[in-house]
Amino acid sequence: MTDSRDTIYADPLREAGLFTFDDNVARVFPDMIKRSVPGYTTIVAMTGLLAQRYAAPGSNLYDLGCSLGASSLAMRQNLDHRDCRIIGVDNSKAMLERCRTIIETDTHDTPVDLVCADIENIAIDNASVVVLNFTLQFIPLAQRDAVIRHIYKGLRPGGVMVLSEKVTFEDPHLDELNIALHHEFKRANGYSELEIAQKRAAIENVLLPETLATHRERMANAGFSACDVWFQCFNFASMVALK
Ligand SMILES: C[S@@+](CC[C@H](N)C(=O)[O-])C[C@H]1O[C@@H](n2cnc3c(N)ncnc32)[C@H](O)[C@@H]1O
Ligand SMILES: O=C(O)C(=O)C[C@]1(C(=O)O)C=C[C@@H](O)C=C1
Could you say which residues bind S-adenosyl-L-methionine here (predicted)? Predict the structure, then answer.
C-alpha cells in the first residue's frame, strides 16, 4: 500500500495555525515523516535492532509518542520469544486509532498495549527498553528533566533509552548550515518553498529543539551511566543512554 501524500501546507493558509497531531496529520503521517526527517527509516529500523539486543525476558518495552506504531513494530518484529510486552503511548486519539489498526494487521506474537495518555503522567515499570523517537521535542522544556528522570527510574539495570530528536547547534553558522541542508532535503523530497515555510511557521514554538550538549547533560543528571549519538544526519540525531 502506498502512503497518502502530505499536502497539508501545499496551499496558502489564511491562518498559520499551530501544528497538532490531528486526523489530517495522522492520515498522511508516514509520508510526512519520511519526507521531513532525514534518516527516519534507518532510525526506526535500528530501534528494532537495539530492542533485540537489550530486551530482557519478562520485561516491558516502551514506545513513548508512538504515533502510528512504526518503532513498536520494528521492536516487535525483532524480538524472539522472550515473554516481553510492548507499551505504545500517545496523547493523540487520531494517531492511536490508526495505530491500533496497523498493529492488528501485524502477526508477530509479542503483546502490544496502546495507551492514550500524556507521557508525563504514565507509569514506567520493569522496562528494559524505552524509546522516544521524535517525541521529547514536543514536551515543554520545563517538563523534560522530570520525563527523563522518570524513565531512568523505570528502567531495569542494564536497560537502554533511545532518544531521537531534531537538534540545534551552539555555533550559529553550523546551525544555519544544518537548517539549510534540512530544507534542501525537504525540497529534494518534493516539498515546495511554500510548504517548507508554512510548516516551519506551524512548528515554531511547538517543536522546541535543544543542543546535543543539553541532551547529554540531562541524561547524565538523570543518572544514565553512558550516552552517545549513534546516528546523525544534519539537525536530526538519535542517542542511546545506558542504565
Ligand atoms: C513525531 S511523532 C513521533 C513519531 C514516532 N515515534 C515514530 O517513530 O514514527 C510525535 C508523537 O508524539 C506525540 N506526543 C507529543 N506530545 C506528547 C505527550 N505529551 N504525550 C504523549 N504523546 C505525545 C504526538 O501525538 C505524536 O504522535
Ligand atoms: O522539522 C520539521 O520540519 C519537521 O517536519 C519535523 C517533524 C518532526 O521531527 O517530528 C515535525 C513534525 C512531524 O511530526 C514530522 C516531522
Answer: 40, 65-67, 90-91, 118-119, 133, 200
